[in-house]
Specification:
Elements lengths: L6 H15 L13 H25 L5 H25 L7 H22 L1
Helix pairs in contact: 1-2, 2-3, 2-4, 3-4
Length: 119
């Protein structure tokens, strides 16, 4: 399998990483419907969609449910990792459980949409 179809997903992962560690001062807040949480959800939904697009281009078929589950796990784990990195190494950034929840929700919703569209 050639890595070319996964270039968009890889580039988007670089964007997510940059946005996660950029030094914008933020205060922790718990508001699951804030623009920040919607942004997290959309970012990780797009990541899963781009990964699924890469699978479709590389294998000439839609991603299977097992592959989508793997993408969900990968995106959710990466989101949790980035939250840990923020809290541990960036003084103006904070570890937030609700950001991790928003990341996972976006990845999950993207998987659901892809499953429904595949039928």
């Amino acid at each position: 399998m050639t890595p070319k179809p996964f270039i968009p997903a890889s580039l988007w992962l670089v964007v997510i990483t940059y946005l996660s560690v950029s030094s914008g001062a933020q205060m922790p807040k718990i508001n699951l419907l804030s623009a920040d949480k919607v942004g997290h959800a959309l970012a990780y939904a797009l990541l899963v969609w781009l990964l699924a697009w890469g699978v479709k281009r590389a294998k000439n078929r839609p991603a299977t449910r097992t592959e989508l589950f793997g993408m969900f796990v990968l995106a959710t784990a990466y989101g949790a990792f980035m939250e840990w990195i923020q809290g541990k190494f960036f003084p103006n950034r904070f570890f937030e459980y609700d950001d991790m929840l928003a990341n996972a929700a976006g990845a999950f919703l993207s998987c659901l949409v892809l499953i429904v569209l595949k039928k």
